[in-house]
Design goal:
Elements (H helix, E strand, L loop, with lengths): L21 H36 L28 H22 L11 H16 L12 E3 L5 H10 L5 H5 L8 E2 L2 E2 L24 H18 L10 E6 L6 H5 L1 H6 L5 E7 L14 H11 L3 E5 L6 H5 L5 H8 L2 H7 L4 H7 L5 H6 L5 H5 L8 H13 L5 E6 L24 H11 L5 H6 L14 H13 L19 H8 L5 E2 L1 H12 L9 E6 L16 E2 L19 E2 L5 E4 L2 H12 L1 H4 L5 E7 L4 H13 L4 E6 L18 H5 L5 E4 L4 H16 L7 E5 L5 E2 L9 H6 L1 E5 L12 E6 L4 H15 L2 E7 L2 H17 L9 H6 L6 E4 L5 H4 L9 E3 L11 H8 L3 H14 L5 H10 L18
Parallel strand pairs: 1-4, 4-5, 5-7, 6-7, 9-12, 9-13, 10-11, 13-14, 14-16, 15-16, 19-20, 19-21, 21-22
Antiparallel strand pairs: 2-3, 8-17, 18-20
Helix pairs in contact: 2-3, 2-4, 2-17, 2-19, 3-16, 6-22, 20-21, 20-26, 22-24, 28-33, 33-34
């Protein structure tokens, strides 16, 4: 077999079967060629899929093609000619390699020592530069800009390119990783370590260094591009999503977990470029195996188009002369660990340990020098091979493409870097390394310059009139502008008026409605605004019926790019399951990670597309910040806006579900994210005011880069009408007086107390208020705390101000303003851990006690669970009496009697809350 013939199907039957009718076989092949020539690749693909389908129906035993030889996917004869100026592009790459390495090296100078990563960009420079010069479209391209997910550890290369383009200065480069401390002439000149849009909002577009999130976010970005197109909001047909990833990164669950979605939706607007330098951070990815082959099989099995770029042009004549397949066999059998070691040595080592494994391959290079062998390159460093792969990827239709590019970590940096296990952690170059790199990249720097200050080698910019710089600008002008670049707030949307909130503020009459359903009803009212409604992107994992959102199915429908090609089993029902090409709901299935990725794409559309969208992601609260908090952090870094709705919230409220569903801590975790505005509302009217304020803050005339998180519950209660004297400011700032204590029937000298409760616990506070007055003559005020976290943030902000200006009057926190002078002890309770109400302790100007559900959740009735944790109404009342007794205001016997009367130690005696009930 020669290299001009088709390779064997490595994991299939054809290699084991004789050709019993050669002429017929040729006729079949000619027929396929005819279909391709006449009907095109799309038609040929359809016919082949139908043939495979029929073959499986007839039980022929045809396998899927998931593995091919360890050679380039695109044969030499099918490679297009390279359209660029090879000499100028080579010169640009050399300048970039030098400046990127020197930026990191200078950041490791004495007194700074913040380091960086040199080796990742060194291995991927060609992969980026072919894209930058020929494929990646900027924001000003007539067809719209591409979205490029740059690999986080390659950021030095992007800064180096921006420096050559005049977008950054030497002072900026010297501020690498010194975001608050590098001042030049009184002006902060600094660069974040990795792609951080929040830190550099006009430059970076996608945060990617939280490894594993880049791949899944890129997939959902490509899906969202199609979503916008299919819904008629924007023509995204010419926009492409590129994600640059590492082979080690592909071990992350999120990296591979959504591949099937991209194939199912035929996202041919998506290309993954995986830099297969065979190394993780500490050593080989698959020392005993072959990661490129593994990834090829995985992606092919998931339905992706796979293009391998394994070998550079120097290997082409060797492979062409490999008539017996000896070299091919070597390439297939050598492990990644050995390939890594080859490039950490020299040509003589490669000759001995690679070519001399087989006398036939040894003979192929017997007349070659060791230097000739050493110059044989990996495909990811060959711009011809990379260009061929990218061109094929952008022209492929019907499926996403992954380009697997074989590279060397630390390539071009010298023998101390290339292929070494420690190369990822190497942050500076020795003097000899600097000199050697200077010689290889051919920059005009003398030995004396390097020796005079080895910690600060000069950057190199040949000037704006240099042919290389002119070429760089020309290519980017033709492609639509510079990358990376982020633009924001180019369009504003009309927000709903007062009418949309009227129903929520009226209450539910006699009907019991949980706050989850109260929110859904509000959403329905908001969706009646014809200008606002198209901007809403409801995102639901496979729990729409749990949240009462199935009513949206037949109206705004579920997004499916293929439409609904079947008759749903419930088609005769009013609430039938409906999918449509222009559907509005993104239904991700049982996929919280994918839902957050979809939220991120929609919540940043105002910047990536200039089309503000309002994602509203409704989910089991336990599966939000606990399971997908990392994705939410990345969304915050990307400056996403929208609403996270933690439904079925609380540690005791989701009756019967048990530990893995009982959320007693999500507001606590939410408080750690500075871009999340978290609320725990009790009533529908509170939700209405919070949502309205959220829309104004995120989508109003001065939009803020925040997202709102609301916990809502599935326990039905009568939703009260909004009080006429409602303290709206208190609702939004975090607490307000819900019900003042009543002195009727008791003396004016009655003992006093303050009860702080949030969310589903508010009725328990009201219950405690009644018990205290009825049984002990104690008058308590009940406060609805809509946001413990916002109260805490305000208090901390005032403390920061007082630290900077210790003798200025900064005013008092909202907690202090509301509780100052309020009589009696303060007792707080919620359906979360004690950590949540304890957040405001330092600002409560009185004796303060908190109750909470600090253990694991469990399956039981709501009343029993609340009694077990001692957070229910009677428990609040007992705690109030205990604190009054401790202050000497009531006899200790009162507290003891109350505990016995309410059977506080008897779990079966709990009465706070409804049993059962739908959301």
């Amino acid at each position: 077999m020669t290299q001009n013939e088709a390779g064997p199907i490595l994991n299939g039957l054809p290699t084991n079967l004789p050709d019993t009718d050669v002429e017929e076989t040729l006729e079949w092949l000619e027929s396929l060629d005819g279909v391709i020539d006449e009907g095109g690749r799309h038609r040929a693909r359809y016919v082949m899929l139908k043939l495979l389908e029929r073959a499986r129906e007839r039980q022929i035993g045809v396998p899927s093609l998931t593995g091919t030889d360890y050679v380039n996917t695109i044969p030499v004869g099918q490679e297009p000619s390279f359209p660029g100026d090879e000499d100028l592009e080579r010169g640009i790459r050399r300048l970039l390699r030098w400046n990127a390495a020197i930026m990191v090296h200078r950041a490791q100078r004495p007194g700074i020592g913040v380091g960086g990563h040199i080796a990742s960009y060194a291995s991927s420079a060609t992969l980026y530069e072919v894209g930058m010069n020929h494929f990646f479209r900027g924001k000003d391209h007539p067809g719209g800009g591409d979205q490029v997910y740059f690999q986080g550890h390659a950021s030095p290369g992007m800064y180096a390119r921006a420096y050559l383009a005049g977008r950054l200065t030497e002072d900026d480069l010297d501020g690498f990783r010194q975001e608050h401390s590098h001042y030049v002439d009184g002006k902060l000149r600094a660069l974040p370590s990795y792609p951080h849009p929040r830190q550099m909002p006009k430059f970076w577009e996608f945060p990617t260094v939280s490894m594993g999130l880049g791949p899944i976010n890129a997939i959902y970005q490509a899906q969202f591009n199609r979503y916008l197109h299919n819904r008629g909001i924007k023509d995204t047909s010419q926009q492409h999503v590129w994600a640059f990833l590492g082979d080690g990164e592909m071990d992350e669950v999120e990296s591979r977990g959504a591949l099937q979605l991209a194939a199912n939706e035929e996202l041919d607007n998506l290309t993954f470029v995986i830099n297969c330098n065979l190394q993780r951070l500490d050593g080989p990815v698959r020392g005993n195996g072959k990661i490129m082959q593994e990834l090829e099989a995985f992606f092919r099995g998931a339905g992706w188009n796979v293009i391998k770029v394994v070998w550079g042009r120097g290997w082409d004549p060797l492979l062409a002369n490999d008539t017996e397949g000896a070299l091919l066999n070597l390439m297939n059998s050598v492990s990644d660990g050995d390939y890594q070691t080859f490039k950490a040595n020299d040509g003589a080592y490669v000759r001995k340990h690679f070519f001399e494994r087989d006398p036939r391959t040894a003979a192929m290079v017997k007349d070659w020098s060791d230097e000739d062998i050493w110059r044989l390159s990996r495909g990811g460093h060959d711009y011809h091979k990379v260009y061929s792969a990218y061109k094929a990827a952008t022209e492929f239709t019907g499926a996403p493409t992954v380009v697997l590019a074989h590279t060397i970590k630390g390539y071009f940096l010298g023998k101390h870097f290339a292929g070494r296990n420690a190369t990822h952690q190497m942050k500076k170059l020795a003097l000899d390394d600097l000199k050697s790199l200077r010689d290889r990249v051919q920059v005009p720097i003398s030995d004396e310059q390097l020796e005079s200050d080895p910690y600060r080698p000069p950057y190199v910019h040949p000037g704006k009139d240099d042919p290389r710089i002119k070429y760089l600008h020309e290519r980017r002008r033709e492609l639509g502008g510079y990358l990376p670049e982020r633009r924001a707030d180019r369009k504003f949307i009309s927000l709903p008026g007062d009418k949309a909130y009227e129903s929520s503020r009226k209450g539910s009459g006699k009907q019991e409605v949980a706050t989850t359903m109260a929110f859904v009803r509000l959403l329905k009212d908001l969706m009646r605004d014809k200008q606002f409604a198209p901007r809403v992107v409801p995102i639901i994992p496979d729990e729409a019926r749990t949240f009462g959102m199935d009513a949206f199915f037949p109206t705004i429908k579920i997004y499916n790019p293929h439409g609904q090609n079947y008759t749903p089993v419930d088609h005769e029902l009013f609430l039938s399951y409906r999918e449509a090409k222009d559907g509005q709901i993104i239904h991700t299935g049982i996929n919280e990670a994918g839902s957050v990725a979809a939220f991120t794409a929609a919540g940043t559309s105002y910047a990536t597309h200039g089309e503000p969208m309002v994602p509203i992601y409704v989910f089991y609260s336990m599966f939000g910040f606990q399971r997908t908090g990392d994705g939410m952090w990345a969304a915050a870094d990307q400056l996403a806006r929208g609403f996270y709705i933690g439904a079925t919230a609380g540690r005791t409220t989701l009756a019967g579900e048990g530990t893995q569903h009982m959320d007693g801590h999500s507001p606590v975790i939410a408080s750690t994210n500075p871009a999340i505005v978290a609320y725990d509302p009790a009533y529908g009217y509170e939700i209405a005011h919070i949502v309205r304020r959220g829309l104004e803050r995120m989508y109003g005339e001065q939009p803020e880069d925040v997202s709102y998180y609301l916990t809502v519950y599935n326990e039905p209660i009568v939703q009260p009408k909004e009080p006429e004297d409602l303290d709206v400011e208190g609702v939004l700032r975090g607490m307000y007086l819900l019900r003042k204590g009543d002195f009727e029937g008791v003396g004016e000298d009655a003992r006093r107390a303050q009860i702080l409760v949030s969310g589903v616990a508010v009725p328990w506070g009201l219950e405690a208020q009644e018990l205290l007055k009825k049984d002990f003559g104690v008058v308590a005020d009940v406060w609805s705390v809509t946001s413990w976290t916002e109260l805490r943030r305000e208090g901390l902000e005032l403390e920061r101000k007082s630290f900077d200006e210790p003798f200025a009057d900064h005013g008092k926190s909202w907690v202090e303003q509301k509780l100052e002078g309020a009589p009696g002890p303060v007792v707080a309770s919620s359906d979360y851990t004690t950590t949540l109400p304890d957040m405001i302790r330092q600002w409560v100007p009185a004796d303060y006690s908190v109750l909470g559900a600090d253990e694991f959740g469990f399956s039981d009735t709501r009343a029993a669970a609340r009694r077990y944790f001692k957070i229910d109404g009677p428990s609040i009342a007992v705690r109030v009496l205990q604190r009054l007794a401790a202050a000497g205001e009531v006899p200790e016997e009162w507290a003891t009697r109350a505990a016995e009367q309410y059977k506080i130690q008897d779990v079966t005696a709990g009465t706070s809350g409804n049993a059962g009930g739908d959301a």
